[in-house]
Amino acid sequence: MEGLQMNGTPETYQYIEGEWRTGESDESITVVNPATPIDPVATFPGGTATQADAAIEAAARASRSWEQTTPDERDQILYAVADLIDSQQEQLAEILTKEEGKPLSSSRGEVGRAAEIFRFFASYARTATGKTIPSNDPETFTYTIREPVGVAVLITPWNFPIATPSWKTAAALAAGNTVVLKPSSETPMIAKALVSLLEDAGIPDGVLNLVVGSGSTVGQALITNDEADAVSFTGSTETGQYIAETVSQRGVPIQTEMGGKNPQVVLPDANIGSAAAGAISGSCGGTGQACTATSRLIVHTDIADELTAAVVDRAESLSIGPGMEDPDMGPAVSAEEDASNFRYIEIAEDEGATRLTGGNRPNGFEEGYYIEPTVFGDVTPEMRIAQEEVFGPVLSIIEVEDFEAAIRAANNTTFGLSASIYTADMTASRRFTREIEAGVVKVNGTTTGSQIQMPFGGMKDSSSETQKELGQEAYKFYTHKKAIYRSDP
Ligand code: NAD
Question: What fold, for 12-258+463-486?
Answer without folding.
Answer: Aldehyde Dehydrogenase; Chain A, domain 1 (3.40.605)
